[in-house]
Specification:
- By secondary structure, the protein is mostly helical.
- Helix content is 56%, strand content 5%.
- A seven-stranded mixed β-sheet has the order 2-3-4-1-5-6-7, sandwiched between helices.
- A hairpin with a 4-residue loop joins strand 2 and strand 3.
- The longest helix has 38 residues.
């Protein structure tokens, strides 16, 4: 059911200082749920919001503000449902293809916490943006490799290959009915429509998702005397509104894609004109084309380097006309380039490969160099303000940037290898993809062996930890009859939950190995032509055979991985469980705004955080009531971000209840500049009170671990899971191991919620601590 939002009751709004009504605003976590499940009632009504994200109440509670006496002993429950921001539509599964862009965007937010060093911080962000730009060029270059080089240049230019694919007949000069399109330059111009369409699709998705998800303006608040805006960046007015930066980066990346297509289609023709000494007019046009592409590329890099995010104010302005019209200028330059390439050159024939080796080699070298320099800067920032809890000693950002580049390489190499196999198979009638892509395929088998060895070591360590946990389980349930099977299951669940804490080790090993193996692949590709083919030494023959075997196996694995990747996305069209799984990936990966790459999947928090902030600010202002912000899992991260956006005077009337929360365990370690100990301590002091619930069996949530006396004030002792070891009067059937779900089933949840509400209730003291000290345990 749905009804229009109602104005708050006049009685409550008239004298808010006497209002005694409480609101419990529930925010669900990863995977999503329904308002009926969150509120425990099949009859719910939407009171504000739309089909994408909305606030729901039970039908009996819609007019709660008009009768506050009915809610003096209990809060009014509300549910904020945001699952449609990340999952539910099968088409969004195709966003998996944008995974490298999402990963490099995460690297921007993983910088170490630092005090001062503003220029160094800006340099860190600049390098990540450049790495993102290289990924866009890599993706479009891969499309050019497939369409222009493999299909239009190699296969259409070879009689044996063209005869096997009749749809290429009109492009091939080797068949009897060769037509107007059979000239090499015209084939390249026609094939350029494929990467052009890909670039246009990326621009369209970025523009459409911005309008649908991220165009909501945050709540505008006036400055208060006690307000401190530099405690954490998440509390700044413009943090959740990156319209200007996204528009600037979208223009630059779209232009970079168009210029990449222009270079792939026009530079071979210009090189032919230079080498053959053709007409002076074409030679001059070719040189003018090369200069224009170089100048346009320099402008694109300048736009990316020019400015980062504006967070200290709500920036509603747009950039100047040069930036906004850069894609149109690049599109016009591409059109002129295609006309130049299509000019008649009867002597020009296609043979060998297009100059893709130099392009992919330069991209691989630039990406490796950017990651290395980024690591040096991240290490320097970490040393200025060390955080022992930061993942990989502050090097999480460079490591994740390396993984993003590796994902881009695997995807580009995978699609190139598969298309080459489809066009030619094992006949070897065409040269195939660039040598570097073949060498990059050879690093996949050793990398997989390394990952399997690491997973085996983690499994062995988890088994040892499970055996060690048996004693702890028996001590926790020592009053219960012993059951070895039950104890082993609980101990194994606790041990498996600790694997989350091994994530930094896995990322460190994989990223380091990828960097070293990628450097080896680049060196191998550069020296391939220098290796004498007639060398017959046993050692050389063994190395050459091993390399060829690794290349063949790696090529097959890359292709298989790419096919599985696309198949998984396609499966989400029909399978709701697959859509749910993919939605969980986006819930974790797309929380952050698009600061490094405009083609990354959209940031749902730029809609969810303003939603929550507006709801809390308007409700407390209208009713003067108390509010408990209750967040589970990823919902606790949204709750914390929304609380930081409130005025300090409003924030002090809000209590925070988190459970299964990754605030410290994942976000605090991987994003120390925004969720480190200083930021979480500031959140504890900014809200009126905060309690956090966690379980040892939870693989995602954990304690907040604030330093000093703040820690016990926030974290409750770990909850028992399961609630009952065996059959009891309260649990006549075996109690399940809940892990990350259903925290409300534990009596501690209702107890902590009541303590928070009691502390917020005006005129009443907070509950005494269990030690009788009088300090509120809330």
């Amino acid at each position: 059911m749905e009804r229009a939002p109602e104005e708050p009751a006049p009685a409550a709004a008239a004298r808010p200082e006497e209002a005694d009504i409480a609101l419990e605003l529930l925010v669900h976590g990863v995977g999503g749920t329904t308002p009926q499940d969150m509120l425990g009632d099949p009859r719910t009504e939407r009171i504000t919001g739309d089909d994408t994200a909305a606030v729901f109440r039970r039908a009996d509670d819609v007019d709660a503000e008009s009768r506050p006496d009915d809610y003096r002993d209990r809060p009014v429950p509300e549910a904020y449902v945001w699952s449609n921001l990340t999952s539910g539509n099968g088409a969004r599964a195709l966003w998996l293809l944008l995974l490298p862009f999402m990963v490099v965007n995460l690297a921007h937010w993983m910088r170490p916490s630092v005090r001062g060093r503003v220029r160094t911080v800006r340099l860190y962000g600049l390098l990540v943006r450049l790495a993102g730009l290289s990924l866009t060029v890599l993706l479009v270059a891969a499309a050019c490799e497939v369409a222009l080089d493999l299909a239009a240049w190699q296969c259409a230019g070879t009689q044996a290959c063209a005869e096997r694919h009749s749809w290429l007949g009109f492009l091939s000069p080797e068949v009897s009915n060769a037509g107007w399109w059979s000239l090499p330059g015209r084939r390249l111009a026609l094939a350029a429509l494929v990467p052009l369409a890909l670039t246009g699709l990326l621009w369209y998705l970025s523009h459409r998702t911005w309008s649908a998800y991220e165009s909501q303006e945050p709540l505008t608040r006036g400055r208060e005397p006690e307000e401190e805006t530099d405690r954490t960046a998440l509390g700044r007015p413009g943090f959740w509104y990156g319209r200007r930066l996204v528009a600037r980066l979208r223009a630059a990346h779209t232009s970079a894609g168009l210029l990449t297509v222009a270079a792939a289609a026009g530079l071979p023709a210009a090189r032919f004109d230079h080498e053959t000494g053709g007409p002076a007019t074409l030679d001059a046009l070719g040189r003018l084309l090369e200069a224009s592409l170089l100048i346009a590329a320099a402008v694109v890099v300048w736009v990316v380097c020019r400015r980062g995010r504006s967070e200290h104010r709500l920036d509603r302005r747009l950039d100047d006309h040069l930036v906004r019209r850069l894609p149109l200028v690049s599109l016009a330059l591409l059109a002129l380039t295609l006309l130049y390439a299509a000019w008649q050159r009867p002597e020009w024939t296609s043979s060998g490969r297009l100059p893709g080796d130099a392009t992919f080699g330069a991209l691989a070298f630039v990406q490796g160099l950017l990651v290395i320099v980024l690591g040096v800067i991240a290490h320097a920032l970490h040393r200025t303000h060390p955080d022992p809890r930061a993942a990989m000693g502050g090097l999480g950002g460079p490591a994740v940037a390396m993984l993003a580049c590796a994902l881009g390489g695997v995807m580009s190499g995978g699609v190139s290898q598969r298309v080459a196999d489809w066009l030619d198979g094992t006949r070897a009638s065409i040269p195939g993809p660039p040598v570097l892509l073949t060498w990059q395929a050879s690093v996949i088998p050793p990398l997989l062996v390394l990952v399997l060895l690491l997973c085996g070591w983690l499994a062995w360590r988890t088994m040892r930890l499970a055996r060690a946990e048996l004693a702890t389980v028996e001590r926790d349930y020592r009053s219960e009859p012993h059951d070895s099977t039950r104890s082993r299951r609980i101990a194994r669940t606790r041990a498996m939950a600790t694997l989350t804490d091994r994530g930094p080790l896995l990322v460190a090993v994989v990223s380091t190995a990828t960097l070293l193996l990628g450097a080896g692949a680049l060196a191998g590709a550069l020296t391939t032509d220098e290796t004498p083919a007639e060398a017959t030494e046993p050692a050389h023959a063994f190395v050459q055979g091993a390399a060829e075997t690794a290349q063949a196996l790696g090529s097959w694995l890359i292709g298989l991985g790419f096919i599985l990747f696309v198949t998984w996305g396609r499966r989400a069209y029909k399978d709701a469980s697959a859509r749910r799984t993919i939605g969980i990936l986006w819930d974790v990966g797309t929380f952050w705004p698009r600061a490094a790459h405009p083609f990354a999947p959209p940031c749902y928090a730029e809609r969810a955080v303003p939603d929550l902030t507006w709801r809390m600010a308007t409700w407390t202002r209208a009713t003067g009531g108390r509010l408990v912000l209750s967040g589970h899992s990823q919902g606790s991260v949204l709750a914390a971000a929304a609380a930081w956006q409130l005025k300090p005077s409003v924030r002090k009337r809000v209590a925070l209840l988190t459970y299964g929360s990754p605030l410290e365990r994942l976000y605090g370690r991987w994003f120390p500049a925004h969720f480190g100990p200083a930021a979480l301590s500031a959140l504890h002091h900014d809200v009126d009170c905060w309690r956090n619930l966690h379980r040892p069996t939870d693989p995602i949530g954990g304690p907040v671990l604030l330093p000093g006396a703040c820690g016990p004030e926030v974290d409750r002792d770990a909850l028992k899971d399961p609630l009952a070891y065996g059959r009891t009067e309260l649990h006549p059937l075996p109690a399940p191991i809940l892990g990350h779900s259903d925290y409300q089933a534990d009596p501690a949840f209702a107890e902590e919620r009541e303590r928070l509400l009691t502390r917020l209730r005006p005129g009443l003291p907070g509950p005494r601590g269990q030690d009788g000290s009088g300090r509120s345990s809330a």
